[in-house]
Amino acid sequence: MLKSRIIACLTVKEGVVVQSIGFSKFLPVGRPEIAIEFLNSWGVDEIILLDISAGRLGQLISCEMITNCSKKCFVPLTAGGGITSVEEAAQLLHAGADKVTVNSAALVRPELIQDVAKKFGEQCVVVSIDAKKLPSGEYGVFRSGGTDSVGIAPVEWAQRVRSLGAGEILINSIDRDGSKLGYDLELTSSVASAVDIPVIALGGVGHPQHFIDGLQNGAAAAAAGNFFHFSEHSVITAKSFIAPFAEVRLDTYADYSSGGFLEDGRVSRKKDKFLQELRFVHYEEEVI
């Protein structure tokens, strides 16, 4: 049985990793290669690097940044931001990315998906879909950072991109972005049940339970961005929480499984007596 993937999605704005809140507020985190180095050492299964400023500036995500990041990354690396052609996708793959993700450009020219899939294979193409609930109660697909409604439903667009050769779909809830309220399970489930390719849930994780909810509602992989920046070893602790409920890769002895978890999903603090016994005691050299 294939294990479910826990994926870190790094949002990059003007060369800096940021925390995204509602697609409108961005808090700086640090350099992409440093964030990737930590996430890689903490046991993440994949990393998605999305440059949200590249497309708006009419540019491609920096190939130099991809190369620098790939030197620190030993898990599959997906890169996206400003891809408009097969040639640009090729540049990112040659720079060190394993897969590419397309979004706005595919909405303008859907054939881009087909072209990239034909050149590099469907397994190389991840289509990112930004969606939110409309006043009517239905869901709609948006582009340009969630500001421009496309007039198509996420399920319909997911089925279309699948027919064009998408290998995976990254479904991102604009409403839940940075909310810590968990995935939009209705959105995730509807898209996952409409296609026969892996669907990656993204947007809203604030507790390890949210990963479980996403995986139990059709997602083949669960992704988060802000969540992994809040504490050290965040990936390992999250996987330790998830492991009893879903098959995940947890190849480390430091899995925190015996310590228990607090209500907020963090590892329980040991009692003071236990911690005191772990301390080294210095004894002065005895003079006889």
Structure explained in plain terms:
The protein has an 8-stranded parallel barrel, surrounded by 6 helices. It has about 290 residues and is of the alpha/beta class. It has 10 helices and 12 strands. The mean pLDDT is about 95. The termini are far apart. Helix 1 packs parallel to helix 2 and helix 8 (about 210-215) crosses helix 9 (about 235-240). The chain has one domain: Aldolase class I (TIM Barrel), CATH 3.20.20.70.
Low-pLDDT stretches: none
CATH architecture: Alpha-Beta Barrel
Mean of the pLDDT scores? 93
Strand content bin: 15-25%
**Number of domain units:** 1
Order of helices and strands: EEEHEHEHEHHEEEHEHEHEHH
CATH topology label: TIM Barrel
Helix content: 25-40%
Describe the largest sheet: 8 strands, parallel, barrel
- State the secondary-structure class: alpha/beta
Q: Termini separation (Å)?
A: 66 Å
Specify the CATH class.
Alpha Beta
The number of distinct helices, counting runs of at least 4 residues, comes to 10
Widest sheet, order of strands: 1-4-5-6-7-10-11-12
Short overview:
With 288 residues, the protein is of the alpha/beta class.
